Amino acid sequence: MEKGQRMPAALREFDACFLAIPLQETVEFLERNSHTKLIEICSVKTPMKRFRNNVISIHPMFGPKSIGNPEFRNIIFVDDVSPPNSIGSIEELFPDFFIESMSADEHDRLMVELLVKPYLVSMLVSAVSKPVPWKATCTSHKAFKNLASISANESRRALIDTIRYNPYYKGAIDELQAGIANLQKEIQ
């Protein structure tokens, strides 16, 4: 779509238009342009509720590093944001994928487990990880470095937005802090 071109005119040329932009920009775009040919793919769905029936809302659970892996051919369809019966359009676009339907609230609660907690732990591990000046290593250290790589290989803004805009992120932080406190008690 050319800059300045009106969205409805541009959409007539396409069956669908994926919004692969950061969350805040997606919200701003949808405030100006609502159309059922738009498919938003943000990792947080609560902010999308206000666009109910005006945008198809999905969350592809794969990325550039996992697209070829059949284990990660999953798409979440957000049924309380998307127009009725629009899941069929997603099934047509992604015929060999497992598509699971859920509400925006269910999605955001699930993302706490699938994304928010792993991102938080990875960011913490990255912050405390130090280079080791010896060649000696072990599987624990390799796993530690792999954990740090989760956040190192992602856009920092995408990580922070996925955490910040999820309405349940504070519970995840509380759980992690309680886990650390329990470990401290166990060690002492």
How many individual helices? 7
Low-pLDDT stretches are none
Total E-strand runs: 5
CATH hierarchy, class of the largest domain:
Alpha Beta
Describe this structure in words.
With 188 residues, the protein is α/β, with parallel strands linked by helices. The protein folds into 2 domains: 7-102, NAD(P)-binding Rossmann-like Domain (Rossmann fold), CATH 3.40.50; 106-187, no CATH class. Helices cover 47% and strands 11% of the residues. Strands 1-2-3-4-5 form a 5-stranded mixed beta sheet. Helix 4 packs across helix 5 (139-152) and helix 4 crosses helix 7.
Outline the fold blueprint.
Layout: H1 7-11, E1 17-19, H2 23-32, E2 38-40, E3 56-60, E4 74-78, H3 87-93, E5 98-102, H4 104-128, H5 139-152, H6 156-164, H7 169-187
Parallel strand pairs: 1-2, 2-3, 4-5
Antiparallel strand pairs: 3-4
Helix pairs in contact: 4-5, 4-7
Q: What structural keywords apply?
A:
7 helices; 11% strand; alpha/beta; Rossmann fold; 47% helix; 188 residues
Give a quick precis of the structure.
The chain is α/β, with parallel strands linked by helices and 188 residues long. The chain contains seven helices and five strands. Helix content is 47%, strand content 11%.
